[in-house]
Specification:
This protein has helices at 3-11, 36-51, 152-172, 189-197, 214-220, 238-245, 251-258, 265-271, 281-290, 311-320, 339-361, 391-400, 416-432, 446-455, 473-479, 492-495, 516-534, 536-551, 556-568; strands at residues 16-20, 55-60, 68-71, 77-80, 91-92, 97-101, 104-115, 124-130, 177-183, 221-224, 235-237, 262-264, 275-278, 296-298, 371-375, 404-408, 438-441, 458-461, 484-487, 502-505. It is an alpha/beta fold. Strands 1, 2, 5, 6, 7, 8, 9, 10, 13 and 14 form a 10-stranded mixed beta sheet that branches. A 6-stranded parallel beta sheet has the order 17-16-15-18-19-20, sandwiched between helices. Strands 3-4 form a two-stranded antiparallel sheet. Helix 12 links the parallel strand 15 and strand 16 (404-408).
């Protein structure tokens, strides 16, 4: 018996929920994630391992990763392949399944990675699907290589491999499944595979009757949508679907479920899932307007406690709030932590960030001045440049109360506006030189993220409303006692208690975007920086508010318990 089969047999003894995600951040050095969606998926599985929710995850091996980011002297992003060897981290599965793509047989193998959070835990199995097999046509061996790479045809092949190939692989390995959870619409082709599985015998059908047991498929499926704009949804021409996937057995039914003009992956998932949720209360409201007639619940995201708490702060919690790693709600007792101890731990985390900034960029920061941190995917709606709307005013604020800026983030290789944004940030950095120390950290990953959310003094977030589905970086900052200064969108609508957990940029109004820069400067100048410099006990009180009211609630354990009770066990 092979090692891989014996390992998977451990996980096939009891029913599990199959969790499908195009990207999963399993650990920093495995580049199978591009950003928030993948990191959330990893935190979901880590929480499931912690609290004992039986799951199995399915994703792609992404051998070439997303990309490694280099910034040239002019501030332009350069992309390089981020190749990794799955054999170093995972065990090859001794199973393969065949799909027909473009009238060719494509074999899908895979790897088993076991995500475990503590000694003695069986962990959560993660299946990394892989088409780089010698038996395959050279044109098909790279289907699972590049995360979000290639053209529309390549993308669709990936999504068929993920959804249809994932279903087949789970069956081949003998997994007993109680349901399927689609993390975004990339895996929605799995619903077509389930339709075929739950088809009625042709002889039992009446004229015009659908051959599929759609209620049975819906009962098995959960769908989490993350995209608050129609333009961001995956859609494929039916001519492309027929060329790659083959003729659909009942095209009329599929068009009713997925759209008349194009196969809309989100519509398909919405129509074939019994439980649908957005990732924050505001996002669920936006989704219900986007998709009228659908019941979209709200399960606000959370982050994994021990993954996103820096060592100095984690050790402090271990001492004063024992048990917080597995019962993060205990952090509501953060007020028992002595002020001096919390400040000292934060300064240690801050020094680690200062040291990393110097190592990566040569920029020397002052640990005795506040650091504004901003790190996320570099794309236009995130408005990474909002802080620099009025450089003269920004400099004037800094002359009165000096501060520093640390930023990071990748733009998708095809997002030219995002790349131009990074270039513009470097131009602002040059303009501010000598007056406001600023650094842009290249090749943002989980390791840099932890240093930034734990070592910054204020976490900045400035998206265009209502385009921030949730956002989780501010939640990670909260676990480190770092308050957020953010536009009221996504999770911050729920998390912001003004002056208690952090501060709002502008008003809670979808039409307030044009006034945000002035609101940001006013509050930074008149409220936030004076508090940091002139009232240390008051500042530490906000730090404790971020921990006790945000971290204690916006964590992955609370999120997973809601999925388990409301979605999986309904």
């Amino acid at each position: 018996m092979s090692e891989a089969i014996s390992k998977t047999e451990i996980f096939t003894r009891k029913p599990r929920v199959a969790y499908f995600s195009m990207e999963i951040a399993m650990e920093n050095n495995i580049p199978t994630y591009s950003g928030g969606l993948g990191v959330l998926a990893g935190d979901t599985l880590r929480a499931a391992a912690d609290i004992g929710v039986p799951m199995v995850a399915v994703t792609l091996v992404s051998r070439a990763g997303y990309f490694r980011q280099e910034i040239d002297p002019q501030g332009r992003q350069l992309e390089h392949a981020d190749n990794w060897d799955p054999a170093r981290y995972a065990t090859r599965l001794q199973a393969a399944v065949a799909l027909d793509l473009e009238d060719r047989q494509v074999w899908v193998g895979g790897w088993l990675y076991v995500l475990s959070t503590r000694v003695g835990s069986a962990g959560i199995p993660v299946l990394l699907l892989d088409t780089d097999l010698p038996v395959n046509d050279p044109r098909d061996r790279d289907i699972t290589h590049h995360l979000y790479g290639g053209d529309e045809s390549y993308r669709m092949k990936q999504e068929v491999v993920l959804g249809v190939g994932g279903i087949a692989m789970l069956q081949a390995l003998g997994f007993k499944l109680m349901g399927y959870h689609m993390n975004e619409g990339h895996s929605a082709f799995l619903t077509l595979a389930l339709m075929r599985r739950y088809a009625y015998p042709v002889e039992d059908l009446r004229p015009g009757e659908s051959p599929y047991d759609l209620p049975q498929v819906r009962e098995l499926c959960t769908f989490t949508t993350h995209t608050p704009v129609e333009a961001g949804l995956d859609k494929f021409d039916y001519s492309l679907v027929r060329r790659i996937y083959g003729d659909l057995q009942d095209l009329g039914t599929v068009k009713l479920l997925a759209g008349e003009d194009k196969l809309n992956m989100t519509r398909l998932a919405l129509n074939l899932s019994d439980y649908v949720n957005g990732v924050a209360k505001r996002h669920a409201e936006v989704s219900r307007k986007m998709f009228p007639g659908y019941a979209v619940h709200a399960v606000t995201n959370g982050v994994h406690p021990s993954t996103w708490t820096g060592n100095p702060i984690a050790e402090l919690y271990d001492q004063h709030v024992p048990g917080w790693r597995h019962e993060p709600e205990l952090l509501s007792r953060a007020d028992r932590i002595p002020n001096d101890n919390l400040w000292t731990a934060h300064q240690q985390a801050k020094q680690a960030l200062v040291d990393k900034v110097r190592e990566l960029t040569g920029v020397i920061l002052n640990p005795d001045q506040p650091i504004l941190g901003f790190a996320r995917r570099m794309t236009a709606y995130k408005r990474a440049d909002l802080l620099f709307t009025d450089l003269a005013r920004l400099k004037a604020i800094a002359r009165e109360h000096p501060f520093q800026i640390v930023m990071a983030g990748k733009a998708h290789p095809k997002d030219e506006a995002g790349k131009q944004l990074i270039e513009a940030l470097h131009a602002h950095m040059r303009d501010l030189s000598g007056e406001i120390p600023m650094a842009f950290l290249p090749d943002y990953d989980m390791e840099l993220a932890l240093l930034m959310v734990s070592g910054s003094d204020v976490w900045l977030n400035t998206p265009l409303r209502p385009l921030e589905a949730s956002g989780t970086s501010g939640m990670k900052a909260a676990f480190n006692g770092v308050p957020q200064f953010s536009v009221l969108d996504g999770w911050w609508v729920e998390g912001c208690l003004e002056g208690v957990t952090g501060w709002a940029v502008g008003e809670d109004s979808p039409t307030a975007n044009g006034h945000d820069a002035v609101a940001l400067y006013d509050k930074l100048e008149k409220v936030i920086l004076p508090l940091w410099y002139d009232d240390r006990p008051g500042w530490i009180s906000v730090m404790k508010g971020a921990i006790s009211k945000n971290a204690a609630y916006f964590n992955s354990h609370r999120m997973m318990r809601r999925y388990a009770t409301e979605a999986y066990l309904r």
